[in-house]
């Protein structure tokens, strides 16, 4: 018997209250590539993963999304660059887990729609 499994995440949907404001944040402040948009939705490319911003069709979907962890190469440099673009962080990058010589660092922020997200980067301690 063959068991069907999930292969990958194709798209993540993020509810927004103001599509124009949200498009500007994800495009200008986070630097994601806008694929296309409509009056109620916008689609961005995040290294092959599609991020869909949408005005909720029903009230039951009008709540904050899950945390999206955006991987960056250098979290300290990215933190400084994103702050300069107007991204407001809840605190500076910090180590959340150590696994031998590897450390995972994160810095959390909110988008313009009240969704919490984070930058994440792995560091090798010397």
TrEMBL record:
Classify the source by domain of life.
Bacteria
Kindly name one Pfam family recorded for this protein.
Glyoxalase
SUPFAM superfamilies named in the record: Glyoxalase/Bleomycin resistance protein/Dihydroxybiphenyl dioxygenase
Q: Does the keyword Calcium apply?
A: no
InterPro entries this protein is in?
Answer: Anthracycline_SecMetBiosynth, Glyas_Bleomycin-R_OHBP_Dase, Glyas_Fos-R_dOase_dom, Glyoxalase_1_CS, VOC_core
GO MF annotation terms: lactoylglutathione lyase activity; metal ion binding
Tell me which UniProt keywords the record has, alphabetically.
Metal-binding
Where in the numbering of this chain does the VOC domain appear?
Answer: 8-122
Q: What is this protein called?
A: VOC family protein
């Amino acid at each position: 018997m063959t068991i069907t499994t999930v292969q990958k995440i194709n798209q993540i949907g993020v509810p927004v209250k103001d599509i124009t404001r949200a498009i500007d944040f994800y495009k200008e402040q986070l630097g994601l590539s806008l694929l296309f948009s409509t009056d109620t939705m916008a689609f961005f490319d995040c290294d092959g993963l599609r991020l869909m911003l949408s005005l909720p069709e029903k009230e039951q979907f009008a709540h904050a999304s899950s945390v999206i962890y955006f991987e960056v190469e250098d979290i300290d440099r990215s933190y400084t660059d994103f702050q300069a673009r107007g991204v407001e962080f809840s605190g500076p990058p910090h180590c959340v887990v150590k696994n031998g010589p590897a450390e995972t660092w994160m810095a959390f922020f909110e988008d313009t729609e009240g969704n919490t997200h984070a930058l994440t980067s792995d560091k090798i301690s010397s």
